[in-house]
Amino acid sequence: MPTSPLVLVTGPASSGKSEWAESLADQSRRRVIYIATAQRITTDPEWEAKIQAHQQRRPPNWQLWEIPQDLAPGLADAPADSCVLIDSLGTWVANHLTISDPAWEKLVQELLATLKELPAIKILVAEETGWGVIPAYPLGRLFRQRLGTLTRHIGIIADEVYLVTGGYVLPLHHLGMPLDSTQLLI
């Protein structure tokens, strides 16, 4: 295992992905920087409760960086001896749904380059959205396509990939092999 691995934790909603990612970060024995991509919505009690549940699970010594937009530049500031946990890619994608495809492609390339270069341990949480009904509206289809492709890009370069579903953690990096990334479009 590399000294600064890239780990992807993916799965459906409420599957335990964040909890698994948090346990991996805790096991790193490094200073943990928790990067929250969510934006607070004080008028949405359900969303606020979800954020609060995440906050209550985290150890008090973990640093919190709230980075809903500029993820690559924010990651670049992480110390080499840290463990960076990004929760979640789905929320980060949702925060960028209104930008053009060329601007999105640039953001993805910047993020991928930063993830490859950053010497810290990197743990990313991503939701699986493409296993259900095709969204009936264009913005939903754009979200599903962008998140699915981004997750695939990261999975291909990741050292470890876990699928959390049905109460189990499956180590995909041991069970499967990555697809050819040369044909992958953003």
From TrEMBL:
<keyword id="KW-0808">Transferase</keyword>
<dbReference type="InterPro" id="IPR027417">
    <property type="entry name" value="P-loop_NTPase"/>
</dbReference>
<dbReference type="Pfam" id="PF02283">
    <property type="entry name" value="CobU"/>
</dbReference>
<keyword id="KW-0342">GTP-binding</keyword>
<keyword id="KW-0169">Cobalamin biosynthesis</keyword>
<dbReference type="GO" id="GO:0005524">
    <property type="term" value="F:ATP binding"/>
</dbReference>
<keyword id="KW-0548">Nucleotidyltransferase</keyword>
<feature type="binding site">
    <location>
        <position position="87"/>
    </location>
    <ligand>
        <name>GTP</name>
    </ligand>
</feature>
<dbReference type="GO" id="GO:0009236">
    <property type="term" value="P:cobalamin biosynthetic process"/>
</dbReference>
<feature type="binding site">
    <location>
        <position position="66"/>
    </location>
    <ligand>
        <name>GTP</name>
    </ligand>
</feature>
<keyword id="KW-0418">Kinase</keyword>
<dbReference type="GO" id="GO:0008820">
    <property type="term" value="F:cobinamide phosphate guanylyltransferase activity"/>
</dbReference>
<dbReference type="InterPro" id="IPR003203">
    <property type="entry name" value="CobU/CobP"/>
</dbReference>
<keyword id="KW-0547">Nucleotide-binding</keyword>
<feature type="binding site">
    <location>
        <begin position="36"/>
        <end position="38"/>
    </location>
    <ligand>
        <name>GTP</name>
    </ligand>
</feature>
<comment type="pathway">
    <text>Cofactor biosynthesis; adenosylcobalamin biosynthesis; adenosylcobalamin from cob(II)yrinate a,c-diamide: step 6/7.</text>
</comment>
<comment type="function">
    <text>Catalyzes ATP-dependent phosphorylation of adenosylcobinamide and addition of GMP to adenosylcobinamide phosphate.</text>
</comment>
<keyword id="KW-0067">ATP-binding</keyword>
<feature type="binding site">
    <location>
        <begin position="11"/>
        <end position="18"/>
    </location>
    <ligand>
        <name>GTP</name>
    </ligand>
</feature>
<comment type="similarity">
    <text>Belongs to the CobU/CobP family.</text>
</comment>
<dbReference type="GO" id="GO:0043752">
    <property type="term" value="F:adenosylcobinamide kinase activity"/>
</dbReference>
<dbReference type="GO" id="GO:0005525">
    <property type="term" value="F:GTP binding"/>
</dbReference>
<protein>
    <recommendedName>
        <fullName>Adenosylcobinamide kinase</fullName>
        <ecNumber>2.7.1.156</ecNumber>
        <ecNumber>2.7.7.62</ecNumber>
    </recommendedName>
</protein>
<comment type="pathway">
    <text>Cofactor biosynthesis; adenosylcobalamin biosynthesis; adenosylcobalamin from cob(II)yrinate a,c-diamide: step 5/7.</text>
</comment>
<feature type="active site" description="GMP-histidine intermediate">
    <location>
        <position position="54"/>
    </location>
</feature>
